[in-house]
Amino acid sequence: MNIETQLRPSVIAEPEPETMIERIARLAQSDLAPLVQDIDQKGHYPEDFMRAAGAAGAYSAHAPMTTGGEIDIESAVRAMSAVGEHCLSTAFCMWCQNALAWYIASSENQTLKATIGSKVLTGEALGGTGLSNPMKTLFGIERLKLKAERVPGGFSVTGALPWVSNLGDDHYFGIVFSLPQEDDAMVMAVADCGADGVKIIANDDFVALDGTRTFAIQFRQAFIPDDHVLADPITDYIPKIRAGFILLQAGMAFGLIRNCIDLMEGVGNSLSHVNCFLPDQPSDFRETLAALQDEVFDLAKTPFDRSDAYFVRVIKARLAAGEASVAAAHNAMLHCGARGYVRRGAAQRRLREAYFVAIVTPATKQLRKMLADFGAA
């Protein structure tokens, strides 16, 4: 070895930067996992974690607020699933936040993107979706609950929504209202919880997900400025956002299913001699989860595809995710037995949470109606 070689500094490879999903997984383990029992049993709202997740990039992968930005729904789903492994309540709040970001990023309202939109991406502003009633309305299940009239600079909105989640006095959420004086044309906008005429009302306790800040909302001639409008009318806008809205929910299902598999495998050493007689095994759910992920992530590549064939695939994937969540949690309960049946047992909590995946809009029954409407039941 010559002297030049001896003196040359060795090259040490720099570590790869931590990915957003890895950051969220680490944050969930360190900051969220210790709160899970308080979230489940005391209805604690993990606001600090929600804001920290935004700072770590959890809400920005799928929702570029500038023209030409990459739309990465898969990464948003993976980040939610990392959180859902610990707590479905928090994963659902993340979906609410991601949906709000999706609405704004998919609109043509550049002012809204630069103001509220940019804050939603970082977690500086938090909020919900408000689309449960409109989604049901558009598929003939309910009547639209909000009505409005045009006023100088915006709209005056009146009505009430029974269920809106991830809310607080300084939060935002999406709404759809009709204009009776304009043949009931529909407009979609972002509402401010702290605005005059907007009132948050507490709801009943839930069997799970009480930590999601889910409230009823009253509008009494609440002013919605033009700067907050997402689409007027919604005719072309809803088909644009509907697939992303639904696909993002897969993050809740994937995380819960993965943890249920872990719960089943965790009792294998002590109970495998009897659990082997159960018809559904962890390996079955690993195969199911892998297939679901493949389908959702393939669909996530083209979220603005408006064809009926594509949307039917989206509906079927969401339906399968909800059914697999309930099945995985049910079997985690059976595999764990009595140790999962205690008040602080993970299995019974995951079972209660799993039913939410099946009933949150679009619920299992609505998804099946939607398939029937498309002639794909």
> What fraction strand?
5-15%
Q: What CATH architecture label of the largest domain applies? A: Up-down Bundle
Number of individual domains:
3
Q: Biggest sheet: strands, sense, closure?
A: 4 strands, mixed
Tell the overall outline: globular
Q: What structural category characterises the helix and strand content?
A: alpha+beta
E-strand count: 8
Name the poorly predicted regions.
1-15
Strand order, biggest sheet?
A: 1-4-5-8
**What string, H for helix and E for strand, traces the elements in order?**
HHHHHHHEHEEEEEEEHHHHHHH
Q: Using only CA atoms, what is the Rg?
A: 22 Å
Mean pLDDT: 94
- Under CATH, the topology of the largest domain can be stated as Butyryl-CoA Dehydrogenase, subunit A, domain 3
